[in-house]
Amino acid sequence: MTDQSRPGRKRSEQSRLAILAATLELVAEAGYGALTIEGIAARSGVGKQTIYRWWPSKADVLLDALATKADLQIPIPDEGSLRADLTRFLGRTFELGDKSPVADTLRALMAQAQIDPEFGKRFREEFLFRRRDALGRIVDRARERGELPAGVGSGTVIDVVFGTLWYRLLATREPVGRGLAGELVALLSAR
Amino acid sequence: MTDQSRPGRKRSEQSRLAILAATLELVAEAGYGALTIEGIAARSGVGKQTIYRWWPSKADVLLDALATKADLQIPIPDEGSLRADLTRFLGRTFELGDKSPVADTLRALMAQAQIDPEFGKRFREEFLFRRRDALGRIVDRARERGELPAGVGSGTVIDVVFGTLWYRLLATREPVGRGLAGELVALLSAR
Amino acid sequence: MTDQSRPGRKRSEQSRLAILAATLELVAEAGYGALTIEGIAARSGVGKQTIYRWWPSKADVLLDALATKADLQIPIPDEGSLRADLTRFLGRTFELGDKSPVADTLRALMAQAQIDPEFGKRFREEFLFRRRDALGRIVDRARERGELPAGVGSGTVIDVVFGTLWYRLLATREPVGRGLAGELVALLSAR
Amino acid sequence: MTDQSRPGRKRSEQSRLAILAATLELVAEAGYGALTIEGIAARSGVGKQTIYRWWPSKADVLLDALATKADLQIPIPDEGSLRADLTRFLGRTFELGDKSPVADTLRALMAQAQIDPEFGKRFREEFLFRRRDALGRIVDRARERGELPAGVGSGTVIDVVFGTLWYRLLATREPVGRGLAGELVALLSAR
DNA sequence: AACTAAACGAGACGGTACGTCGTGTCTTTCG
DNA sequence: CGAAAGACACGACGTACCGTCTCGTTTAGTT
Question: Measured between CB atoms, does A116 come within 8 Å of chain B?
Fold first, then answer.
């Protein structure tokens, strides 16, 4: 389909990996604010053009690097109760988000999504909404089982969960510990 | 103390206002990503030095502009019930945050707070934590009245409320309508 | 010897001509300053490598294109007098050099010969010195007939003739009209 | 007039001189083909913008550097005879043009004048035509004294002199020695 | 009234990074 | 195996802003 055999040199996988690796290193070392395309190119031994050819912005490189390194795919548990599913889902999410370099990167991406509208669209569609969909499945099943309080839409439940997580990440910068999972479960369970 | 009468020319209030006005105009016209100190100076007919003299970064100018224009101070209601207090507090908050230019500015500031650690500190202390404190009073009173579910800390309640708001602002970009207030109240009330 | 039947595909005459034609078109359209190998390849529908394979620089392509298009070979007249020979030689030269695209190309080549020493060497040997030799024959015959002023070397006579032509081309950019031939003849004839 | 007192920082003479010096050094070391604005800025410890602010192209920087270093103003002699005036004028010219770095620079400027039409105009008006005017005075006086051959216009005389010099510089690259002056005088004197 | 001191608009300065263009090379596929 | 297509590392381009630094000017106290 997309990989029909075209003439011409093929994209260098080696360069691609070097770019992603260099990007993560640089963000870890000096923060997203100091990340530059020029710097990535220099560190990875690549021409700038090679970066511009394949990614529309440095935030996209970073998102790609994050996705390639940390497998962001979180399995959707199905254990028969909201309590169990949510605990497991959040536990897995915390595991990722608590690693400081991953947390820093997520912060930077969410920030850049606000400042660069084009990237914002991609970030929402390729990252945020996928996570929403995953949680959505869990919530839908819980609703069918009658585990959710009436008067609170499924969308809102999802917003509350991710909202709290992101708020801790962005605003209070407290580690999103184990306790939070229990509190959210308590709050969201029908009583 | 600080404002002891010193010799020399006084700070020009006219320049200050021109800078803040120009800043808001420019953000409204082309977005925060296109905001530059150079542009603010040109638009407001001011030397760049005058901006650097009084604000540490362009985000600080913007925060100042926002505070000067929209009164961000939200009164802390005390109507005797969590339901009433929260509804009123959120209603007042939505009023502000639903005006698109204000929402855009808040998004930009939260974004910049992630990217520029120095500004992040100021933004948290001078803006985010003040809002938290206001809501904290409401929550504390509700707790005393036993209106809150057990097993959920006051901090978490606050995180849930603001988290949901910010998440809608930053991630889903849905208008934070009236309905949300009711849903949050329902969720947070002891049952 | 050199054209022994070698294995492999033969050089494509079609590509060669397309390259030369494209080169002349591009110079005519936007000037030598805007001429690029990349542009020639694109215009002629040829891979860049094909150009690099057969010419050492874009100036060489242009020189080749000029030689292929305008026959630069000027016959050496022998009419028995310096006056007649020189008039005829210069007339034929002017015919060529007054066509604006040819003049522009010559200017560009002489310029590039100054900037790129490698090409300079080739340009001198393959173009400039051949023209010198042609005029040299005329001058030598005139000298034998005693038509040249004493005290002026043959080399200088040639330098004066070509120097004046090139100077008009490069510096004053005046059309090298008919009159000039007469004046040069007058100046160079023994009196 | 032009130097009316304007607000703002003044142009830095130190930077200007550093730029001109660096330019000459770089041309001398690696040739005009390797001269870059970037290189000049680096060598002179100046920002690129400072160069772009004051000169329209690197050739203009070089022309300025040449004019500042070697005083290109050649005095117009008036000794009463074409022979004496011309000998002196050419002698002074040779002195300059025989210094290899000056010769190389002149070659490069004349070349660039062909490739960049904008610079070409400036080079002709600010350099070539001034030299022509100087020689023009000498020729005019000679004409009044009847020292020039009839049938050869003053403009052509000038073209012959400068043409021969430039041709030697650009094409044969022979040193323009003393002998040439004598031969030109012989050729141009009425007989 | 003279003096001092700070803030002001203007704008040049040394820098850094941008995103683009062209170079010359290398790799792949096709004829 | 030549030739198209096109990716690659590299280097320079010319521009935009950064934050700093003079300038000459204006405005307030302080002597």
Answer: yes
**Number of structural domains, chain C?**
2
Q: Residue D76: name the closest of D119, D33, D131, D26 by CA.
A: D131
Q: Which two tokens stand for residue D21?
A: 């010096």
As a whole-number percent, the residues of chain A with pLDDT over 70 amount to: 97
D30 touches chain C (CB under 8 A): no
Dist CA A103 CA A99 (whole Å): 6
Same domain, B123 and B175: yes
**Residue C151 structure tokens:** 């005290």
- Mean pLDDT score across all residues of chain D: 92
**Whether C54 and C78 share a structural domain:** no
Q: Which run of H or E residues covers position B38?
A: helix B37-44
Residue B149 per-residue DSSP state: P
Question: Is C2 inside any structural domain?
Answer: no
Residue B63 lies in a domain: no
Same domain, D100 and D75: yes
Give A170's DSSP letter.
I
Contact A119, A113 (CB under 8 A): yes
State whether C103 and C47 are in the same domain: no
Question: What is the distance between the alpha carbons of residues A79 and A76, in angstroms, rounded to a whole number?
Answer: 10
Higher pLDDT, C176 or A184: A184
DSSP label at residue B187? H
Tell me: do C184 and C119 sit in the same domain: yes
Statement to judge: residues A77 and A133 lie in one domain: yes
Q: How far apart are CA D68 and CA A102, in angstroms?
A: 58
Token reading at D2: 């032009």
* C156 contact D CB<8A: yes
Give the chains touching A; criterion: ≥3 Cβ pairs < 8 Å.
B
Contacts of B5 (CB under 8 A, 6+ apart): none
Q: Is A159 part of any domain?
A: yes
Do the domain assignments include residue C150? yes
The candidate with the shortest Cα–Cα distance to B111, out of B31, B180, B54, B25, is: B31
- Partners of chain D (3+ Cβ pairs below 8 A): C
Which of B180, B68, B74, B60 has its CA nearest to residue B131? B74
Interface check for D171 against chain C (CB to CB < 8 A): the answer is yes
Q: At residue D2, does pLDDT exceed 50?
A: no
Running DSSP on this structure, what letter comes out for residue D45? Answer: T
Residue ending a domain, choose from C61, C85, C100: C61
Cα separation, B32 vs B27, whole angstroms? 5
Is pLDDT larger for residue C180 or for residue D165?
A: D165
**How distant is C1' of F5 from CA of B132, in Å?**
60
D78 and D143 assigned to the same domain: yes
Asked if residues D188 and D148 have their Cβ atoms less than 8 Å apart, the reply is: yes
Query: CB–CB of A159 and B153 under 8 A?
Result: no
In whole angstroms, give the CA distance from residue A8 to residue C66. Answer: 32
Which residue among B115, B165, B173 places its CB closest to the CB of A32? B115
Task: Tell me the pLDDT tens digit for each residue of B87-103.
Answer: 999 988 888 887 889 99
- Closest alpha carbon within chain D to C32: D115
Beta carbons of C54 and C23 less than 8 angstroms apart: no
- On whether both A172 and A99 belong to a single domain, the answer is yes
- Domain encompassing residue C55: 13-61
Tell me which protein residue sits closest to nucleotide F29, measuring alpha carbon to C1': B7
Mutate to test the interface with A, among B57, B159, B173 (most CBs of A within 10 A): B159
DSSP 8-state secondary structure symbol assigned to residue C11: P
Q: Is C50 on the interface with D (CB under 8 A)?
A: no
Query: Each residue of A71-87: pLDDT tens digit?
Result: 778 889 999 999 899 99
User: Which residues have C-beta within 8 Å of that of residue B96, sequence separation ≥ 6?
Assistant: B70, B72, B74, B102
Give contacts of B114 with chain A, Cβ < 8 Å.
Answer: 32, 107-108, 110-111, 170
What CATH number corresponds to the domain at position B168?
A: 1.10.357.10
Identity of the residue in A113, A156, A172 whose CB atom sits nearest the CB atom of B159: A172
